[in-house]
Each structure stands twice: as structure tokens, then as C-alpha cells.
Amino acid sequence: MATSVEKGYFIKARRGGRPVVDDLPKFDVEAYIANYKGKTRFDRLLLIGLTSPLLAPEALKLALSEALRGKDVGKYDAALDAMREIVPSQAKVLQDPSWVDRTSKQIKAESDRLEMELKGYKNNLIKESIRMGYDDLGQHLHQTGELVNAVKAYGRMRDYCTTPSHVVIMNIRLISVSIDQGNWLAVQTNVQKLRSHGQQFAETQRLAAKLSAAMGLALLASNSYKEAAQEFIETDPRMAPARMDDPSDEEAFNEVMTPNDVAVYGGLCALASMDRAELQKKVLENTKFRAYLELEPHIRRAITFFVSSKYSSCLSILDSYRADYLLDKYLQSHVLEIYFQIRSKAIQQYFIPFSCVAFSALATAFDTDEQNIEREVTSMVKRGKLDARIDLVDRVLLARKGNARKRVHDEALTMAQEYERAAQLRILRMEMLNAGLEVFEKGKLAGNIGFDSMGGEQPRASSSTTSWFGEGAGRSLRSGLRG
With helix as H, strand as E and coil as C, how does 137-177 read? Predict the structure, then answer.
């Protein structure tokens, strides 16, 4: 089955530049998807089916079953189209032509009922009933895949929120829909709104872990890896022991991500953006993040190896989990860049003590061949990630040698010029004080005109010696400076 699939859809996917994962990941699909709930289950299963030739039949079958349990007709159509193109034999067996018509009628009837109820609430002018009506309508639209209308319904709750908990609920709903939309700017905006009211709303403190995870996800999506790492590693540890199979557990966030995902996202972003001292202090010694790292020991080992300068061991661990990360909904588009940055940092750190390193030594240190290491260092030099020169004749990497003598002379000359300027300013101030002058800020000259006892104008002081004391005073000061 995998071979026939490979010759069809996935060859076209490769030609179109889309990722295709040939390796088998370390997780079992059913066990993996059991950790999630809500719409993300379908999205993750469909992504696996569209990316992995080995897992496509199982993942698409589960995705279609997930769509049939929901109310989103669009997801059912997407899963069925994928099955028809990748595993057509399964599509003929599993399709349910009557489900679309039946579900569409149910959705329309439910929408009409909720809108009629909302209209009645508005006529009665009861704010709490109107707010709940918009909330029910928004959740219905969210479940049926009408995300734009769901955002509008949740946004209209704002005028009818009468307590802090109502505001928190509204913003949490908006964050959830915005994540499904991929509207990361809206996610950041709503998280910041809740955080700005953190002192006023006690409910915000309970949701601190979810807010950090959502903000980290938004920053990851915008390629801000260091800021994303900061959010993930500061995520409140109360989410780590949450029971994902218990719908009543408010600490769980598995409609978006699991605590394991927090550990993976935070660890990879930290490796890509922090140096060894920061990794030691902010990640390994972080008591908040330790609870998450214990869920993914291989991430902790990779960070420990990087901090200990055992770069090949760190990269080997990451490479063994590459297939898993390429099948992740939020990591897939960032894996190559994150891995490149981690590897670039490792090569930079390895090269610092040397003035010249042979490609063969680099290839041995990073468990690769000379051709690959040559391509990597060439890319790093072009991007400005590595300050070095490449000698393709002798096949060595050379550190750039600066002119230390010139640098010392330039620093000494700059210091002398600054000292001379400071000395001249001090002399000028002493001469002005000796002359009985006061120096006012620029623009306050109009306020420096006083009046004598007879009512006539009298100059108090001015920064312009020539204007008030004549050319002689100015000339004497200049001659004093020269002397």
C-alpha cells in the first residue's frame, strides 16, 4: 500500500515542494491522537495522512471517523478527498453519502434555533441572557467550521459582559478560534488583554499556563524563536500533571497542545536561540520548566549534551526525532530552520578555539561527510552566521584574522579625542564661571531678560557672550581657551 501511494500523491507532493516523511516516527498514531481533544485531533490526523506514506492509510481512516463524529462538513469533505487521492480503496468503503445532507440539515436547524433564541433575548433586554446567547451561537459556529462568524459572535459578547469572569471567557473563546484560524496576531492581542487585567481578574491567574502556551505558539508561528522559548519555559507547571482524559480538568489545554508539546516546542526554540549559559540557567535550572522536561527526557538530554559541548550527541538525538516533528501540526514548517540554527550554533561553538579546522575534522565531529559539512559552512558564511573563510584547495575553514595593532591604535586615538573634548568643555565652564555667567538651556533665552529697579530691561545671563557682553568678552574667553 505504501509503495503504490508513494508513486502517486506523494511524488507530486515532493515536486510541489511539500514535505514528505519517509521514516517511521516513534509514536503510534492511535496512542498519539488519544492525548488530544476537539478540532485539533482531525487537523493532526489529516496532516499525518498527507505527509507520511507509511501512516497515510491509518491516519486518514481515523481522520474520516473523527469528521463523522463532528459537525464540520468541510472537514469530512477534506478527509474524503484525501482518501480518494491517496487510498481510493478505503474511500469507497468508508464514505457516507447521506451524512453530509443529514448533518447540513441539523446544522441549519440548530443555527436557526440559536438565532431565534438570541433575538428573543434581545427583545427582553436581559444582558446576561444576550451574552449567553452569543456564547452558544459562537460555540456552535466554531464546531461547524464557520470560524469568521464565530469570531463575530464572540466579539459581540463584549458589550454584555458584566463580571470579570465573563471577560475572561470571551477572550479565551477568541484565542481558541484564532488558533484554529491561524490568526496569530489576534492570539497575541487577546492574551495581552487578559494579562493586562491580571491583577483585577483572579480567573486570569488560573489560566496563566494556557496563556503562556498560546502566546508561545503564536510567537513560534511568527518565527520569533527566542521569545517563544521564553514563553514556553515560563509556562506555569500546573498544566504538566493535568489529566487529559478528564474533560472537567480546567488545567488541560489538549484542545490545542499537550504538556509534552510544551516541552518539545520550548526545548527546540531554546536550543535554536539561546547560548550555552542561557540554556543552563534558563532551561535546565528552571524549576517551572523542569516539570515539562521530565515528560520528554530526550529533549532534556539533548539540551544537556549541547551545554556540555557534546554537539554530535545532541544532534543525533534531534535527528532521531525529526520524523516526529515533521508530522506535528505547529512544528512542521519550522523544523528545517530550527535544526539549521541549532546546528549552526554548534559549529560556531566548536570553531571558536581554532584558527583553522579541516573539513574532515568537522565532518567527524558532527557525524557527517565532507560534502555535507562543506555545504553547511558555506551556507552559514553566506548568511553571516560564521565569521570565517573557506579554503577549497586545502579543504579547511579559516578564522578571519583581525589587525590587533590597528585596533589598539584606533581605540587609543578615540580615547584621546574623547579626553581632549571633555577637557575643553571643563575649561570653557571654568572660564564662564570666572566671568560670572550662567548657562541656560537652549530655547529659554526669552525668559532670561529681567528688569532693573527703574523698570528698564537688564540682561541677567545668556549662553551667548557676544550678544550681551560684546565682542571683547567673547574674544577674551576664546583667548583663555587657547592659552
Answer: HHHHHHHCCCHHHHHHHHHHHHHHCCCHHHHHHHHHHHHHH
Question: Do the beta carbons of residue 179 and residue 190 sit within 8 Å?
Answer: no
CB 42 within 8 A of CB 79: yes
Report residue 201 CA to chain centroid gap.
Answer: 26
pTM of the model: 0.77
3 Cβ contact list (under 8 Å, min separation 6): none
> 269, exposed or middle or buried, with CB in 10 Å at 0-12, 13-18, 19+?
buried
Among the residue ranges 50-54, 72-76, 414-418, 474-478, the one predicted with the least confidence is: 474-478
Q: Tens digits of per-residue pLDDT, 352-381?
A: 777 788 888 888 788 788 888 888 888 888
Alpha carbon 343 to its chain centroid, in Å, reads: 19
- 215, 188 in Cβ contact below 8 A? yes
Q: Do residues 265 and 218 touch, judged by C-beta distance below 8 A? A: no
One-letter amino acid identity for 236? D
Q: Find out whether 374 and 381 touch, Cβ atoms under 8 Å.
A: no
pLDDT in tens, 311-322: 889 999 999 999
DSSP secondary structure letters along 240-281: TT--TT-TT-TT--TTT--HHHHHHHHHHHHHHH--HHHIII
Residue 284 DSSP class: I
Q: What distance in Å separates the CA atoms of residue 144 and residue 133, rounded to the nearest whole number?
A: 17
Question: How far, in Å, CA of 194 to CA of 207, rounded?
Answer: 9
Alpha helices in 182-223 (DSSP H): 184-196, 202-206, 208-221
Torsion of CA 396, 399, 405, 406, to 10 degrees: 110
Distance from C-alpha of 471 to C-alpha of 222, rounded to nearest angstrom: 63
Under 8 Å between Cβ of 213 and 253: yes
What is the rounded CA–CA span in Å between residue 98 and residue 79?
A: 16
Quote the cell numbers at residue 111. Answer: 443555527
* Residue 453, Ramachandran bin (φ over 0: left; ψ between -120 and 50: alpha; else beta): alpha
Q: CA-to-CA distance for 298 and 304, rounded, in angstroms?
A: 10
* Mean pLDDT for all residues in the chain: 83
**Amino acid code (one letter) for 377:** V
